[in-house]
Fold:
Amino acid sequence: MENGWTGPQFSLPSSEDPAPRLDAAGWLSEDAATRLFASAGADFASLKKSADIPGFKPVALDAKLSVSFRSGIESASSENVVGMLPGSERPDEAVFYTAHWDHLGKDESLTGDQIYNGAIDNATGVAAMMEIAEALKQQPNRRSVVFAAVTLEESGLLGSRYLVGHLPFAADKVVADINIDILALSGPSRSVTSIGYGQSDMDDYLMAAAKEQSRTVVPDDKPEKGFFFRSDHINFARVGIPALYASSGMDLVDGGEAAGRKAADDYTSNRYHKPSDNYDPNWDFRGAVQDMDLLLAIGRRLANESTFPQWKAGADFARPAPAQSRTSAP
Ligand SMILES: [Zn+2]
Structure:
């Protein structure tokens, strides 16, 4: 398995992330895991199944690993770039937009193109966020709006984790996070996908804005891939701030579901996390503009009302308690 986790790996310093570190961490394929478990007298498939049930307790595997690494540890820094439009009436409350600016750097073991430009993932998201900032600047908003181009998303969502650990607002005053990670460039679509659908009122905001565009909101059709847990908004959710992670739906105006799925599969197989994620003059920006209008409308609404979107009953997260009640709690 050598399509990731090669070259430098990043982590936050222990002052930011005090969770204990493993002596060694890595990946193995499902086949290799099955063989390893079998050689230790355990059944991978049945243990995996029981691990899906709440209350599962880890089982010690009767196996030992001998491993040696030649690696060095270096300390380096990278920047989150954050801008803000102060609110005109409720400046201590903030709506966040996030889009990661990093990608995977350079792989010198490759022949030919070694540079991961990350044009779609996620220069498109950063460009969209800047356009939305420009649009929101045209008239005052009651609440503050923060635009955070975060670093090291591709290395474990570290930039957004740091940002949430050092929020420039009280967490209970952060209204929501709208995360933009990859815009679709295959034309306008009749649907919008809400990744992590059903968690919070952000779906209702999305549905209202989508309706204005005569579009429907559909849940993510691959929830087992855990995409809701794989981009920067999850760090907001972890501290209880409702987050929206929407992407253009598959139902394209030109060609319907079949065309949408074909374009998505083509991107996943040929460009996603590859040096070929480059700018292409054939991009069709109409769908991207449609999605930017949608995310702008949601941010503008949130920035000009006084309510806070909540998590749905049974969601995996809960809103942070207001700062005062935290100190007066028994
Ligand atoms: Zn990304």
Observations:
- The pocket of zinc ion is lined by residues 100, 121-122, 153, 181-182 (CB under 6 Å).
- The radius of gyration is 21 Å.
